[in-house]
Structures are given as structure tokens and as C-alpha cells.
Amino acid sequence: MSTRTQDFLSNFLAAAASCDADRVVECFASDCRFDLPVHPARGFVGREQARRNWSTIFETVPDLSIELLDAAHHGDTCWAELKYSGTRTDGSPHLMHGVIVITVDAESRLSKARFYVEFVDSSEVSITEHLEAMQDSAHIAAGRP
User: Per the database record, which ranges form the SnoaL-like domain (predicted)?
Assistant: First the structure.
């Protein structure tokens, strides 16, 4: 296990629990890179955008809690499964789950992250219903009944 990645996770979770955007951003390298492979246009580089993001998150979900569900460490990289939960200021629940692949620098700061985290779909649609709807959409797009 990498002590640096463990240190990062510990520092990040404590910073997030403080709901202080500046403290969270201190966990990131100045030229940190955040990629969202499922939403590529949302990727960014740098602490300033990270600070804006975390400020918005804490303003919108003031009781945000991040739980580390599991982690695997290899060198300067870790795979962290996280659960984000809380209540938004409009009273609606905030729930996200996923994995972040994190690379840290020599100071245990995040230098690169790939986010595979999504909002939890609370609908009661089974996998069969989901696939049938996908198939129906494909038929409609192809002009078939």
C-alpha cells in the first residue's frame, strides 16, 4: 500500500467533512487535473476551478458527507469507492456513488483524478425494463414499430 495515497484519502475526507472549500483544495496540487470520462466536457485543470466547484457543492449541500466504502492502492495511484450523501438546500436528497482513480504527487496531493461517480437513480426500473426501453428507442429511431 502507498502511504501517500492513504495520506491523501485521510486528508481529503477530513477536509470534506469540514465543509471548507479552501481546506479541500489544499489537498490538490496546483496543476491538478480532473477528468470525467463519462462527461468529458466537464473535465478541468487547476485549483481555482476546484475551489469554485467545492464552494458550490458546500453551498448547495451544506451537510455533505463522503464515505469511503473501499480503496485499493498501487504506487502513487489509488482506486477509491465513495458515497456522497446529504440534503440539498431545496430539501431534496443528494446521493452519489462511484469510483475515483486518483494519482498523488510527492506531497500526497491529488495530481490527477478520473471520476466515475454518478447520481444514484432512485427509479424502480429493472434492468429488463431499462433494456426494453432502450430497444424501443432504437426501433423508433430506425423507423421500425
Answer: 11-105
